[in-house]
């Protein structure tokens, strides 16, 4: 099932399939290791939903909700 990272529930896992967006935001995500094929898990969500903390490539990364919405993933149903 395809989902964006901002719609994950805490503890949910998936594999990055694509990164949308353009320019600086997309380049920043790639620089942080958010690339197709990377396994990602949502660790925490702030009380108001923004930001979110994910585990990717062996480290924890905090993303704004808008950045997380640009990350397309494949989740096992």
TrEMBL record:
Highest taxon in the source lineage: Bacteria
Protein's UniProt keywords contain Iron: yes
One MF annotation (Gene Ontology) recorded for this entry: transition metal ion binding
Name by which UniProt lists this protein: Ferrous iron transport protein A
InterPro entries xref list: Fe-transptr_FeoA-like, FeoA, FeoA_core_dom, Transcriptional_repressor_C
Spans through the membrane: none
Cross-referenced SMART domains: FeoA (SM00899)
Matches recorded under PANTHER family: FE(2+) TRANSPORT PROTEIN A
Domain spans labelled Ferrous iron transporter FeoA-like: 3-75
Keywords: Iron
């Amino acid at each position: 099932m395809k989902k964006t990272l901002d719609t994950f529930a805490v503890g949910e896992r998936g594999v990055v399939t694509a990164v949308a967006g353009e320019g600086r935001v997309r380049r920043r995500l790639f620089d942080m290791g958010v690339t197709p094929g990377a396994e990602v898990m949502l660790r925490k969500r702030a009380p108001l939903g923004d930001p979110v903390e994910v585990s990717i490539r062996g480290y924890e990364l905090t993303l704004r909700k808008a950045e997380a919405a640009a990350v397309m993933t494949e989740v096992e149903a």
